[in-house]
Amino acid sequence: MKFEKREILLIVGILFIMIGVMALPHMNLIYAVVIAFLLYFAIRVFIGRRKRQIQKEVGQGICAVCGAKVIDDKCPKCDAT
Ligand SMILES: [Zn+2]
After folding, report:
1. pLDDT tens profile 42-52
2. Of 20, 59, 68, 80, which sits 20 to 30 A from 10 (CA to CA)?
3. In angstroms, what is the span from residue 49 Cα to ligand 1's centroid?
């Protein structure tokens, strides 16, 4: 498994939140672990979506005719319907 630096920071942050949750009254270890896992996966999904969004925006490049950013394989200026 390859970990990105940002992912390690995320895990450390989640661990701190878990410790904080455990310090709350009427909290046991299982609740804290469940909350930490849910948070971790929620943030992972959020980061994944943002990455895909950025790749979508950057990956398709720019229009060869006018230089505008290509969206959905179309130039918003030249291919506008
Ligand atoms: Zn164009």
Report:
1. 988 998 888 88
2. 59
3. 27
> Domain limits of the chain?
1-81
Q: Is the pTM of this model over 0.85?
A: no
Contacts of 23 (CB under 8 A, 6+ apart): none
Q: How far apart are the CA of 80 and the centre of ligand 1, in A?
A: 9
DSSP state of 62: B
Rounded CA separation 29/25 (Å): 12
Kindly give the distance from the C-alpha atom of residue 51 to the centroid of ligand 1, in angstroms, as a whole number.
25
Report whether 13 contacts 39 (CB < 8 A): no
Dist. CA 74 → ligand 1 center (Å): 8
Q: Cα dihedral sign for 65, 66, 72, 76?
A: negative
